[in-house]
Amino acid sequence: MSSSTSARPFRVAIIGSGPAGVYAADILTKSQEVAGGDVEVSIDLFESYPAPYGLIRYGVAPDHPRIKGIVNALHKVLDRGDIRFFGNVTYGRDLTLSDVRACYDAVIFATGAIKDADLNIPGIELEGSYGGADFVSWYDGHPDVPREWPLEAKEIAVLGNGNVALDVARVLSKHADDLLVTEIPENVYAGLKKSPVTDVHVFGRRGPAQVKFTPLELRELSHSKDVDIVLYPEDFEFDEASDEAIRTNNQVKTMVNTLTNWLVEQPDHHGTPGEGSASRRLHLHFLHTPVEIIGEDGKVAGIKFERNELDGTGNARGTGEFIDYPVQAVYRAIGYFGSELPELEFDARRGVLPNVAGRVLDTDGNPIQGIYATGWIKRGPVGLIGHTKGDALETIGCLLEDRLSLPAAERPGEDEVVKLLESRGVDYTTWEGWLKLDAHEKALGEAWTAENDGGPARERVKVVPREGMIEASRG
Description:
The protein is an alpha/beta fold. The chain has helices at 19-30, 32-35, 55-58, 67-79, 97-103, 132-139, 163-173, 186-193, 215-221, 240-248, 250-265, 376-379, 385-402, 416-423, 431-451, 466-474; strands at residues 10-15, 41-46, 83-86, 106-109, 115-116, 129-131, 155-159, 199-203, 227-231, 280-285, 288-296, 299-310, 316-325, 329-332, 336-337, 355-356, 359-361, 367-373.
């Protein structure tokens, strides 16, 4: 029997409450076919963290310029009351595939990508070599990572030319006191405060016209107090494809202009501390491919690069010239990678669920009825928030197209999943619980501000331990 034969709501589970999951839920609730048809939709959103927003809470630097706007937009959708939120529920542990299929007519996976992409070069395993995503999890107060982070290096290399690389470099080079206006957790502030860093080097493989970050994030670098930005004339190379991109793409033109202006205006000390210079420096290097992390006594002592040149198409090729930099830590921020999901096929090369337009495929490459994907677990960790909306639109379009032919859930009642979670002793959190935790974190910020008279006003202090988040949510 198809799920449409009954007068009950069409039940959909969405696994993951980051932008991908929330946009999918929003589009589904507003869909003309559902709203104008003979069926109402009922959506439950599941999140493995006790709090919503996924990588927006645990994958973006706390001083990221766009973060508040994104959180506000997601909050508005979930605060309407037509989407139920279940936090602290992990797919594959608290709920199996057969559980969700029994309770819902369709399931959408929006689990994103949280692991670091691999970089296979000699020395990557040395002490002092880190994944950027792991560092981001630490400074964002992820509940499941250690509270301490080894910040002992004076000179640091960050590999990558995307927004995550810039976030990592900005947090490493910024003075801890300047992050107090953000929601930075106490343990992170204490760790960064003790950091002896003087120089952070960001390395990209291609030229200034091929960077993957955006103008807003780039300009944000220049707002760090007592941090000089250092650029190198030999890294400013433009080929035919670069010139074309500068002519035809306003974003590329803006970034190249910003970088070129910084290069022209910088003091002549070329990266060495001179009179009037800042106590920390953030170096931006282009046309460098990492070939080896150099070790001494099992620890990072330097990094070797091959110098590149552009090949006319905007891609880079090696020149055979090598250069070493003395550093004591290396952070790779060359991209995220998806994680396997229990009971589903996984494309280990791309880090995604195999799918066609969001319809998840089985071992033989056929669509599995009622199972869909959206966001980074669907397309890979590329693109910005705007792409995520387009992605969700495509997936929801397929789901609505299939709706009448989907097998009906066996236990579609709204209280069925609640009974199941409670029978398993899962301390799930709700949207009302998030509002309590949100208010609690803001109260911690107010208390900190009152205690530190004359210090910066803190909007919130993020609660880090999972138990603390659950306690504040369940009250």
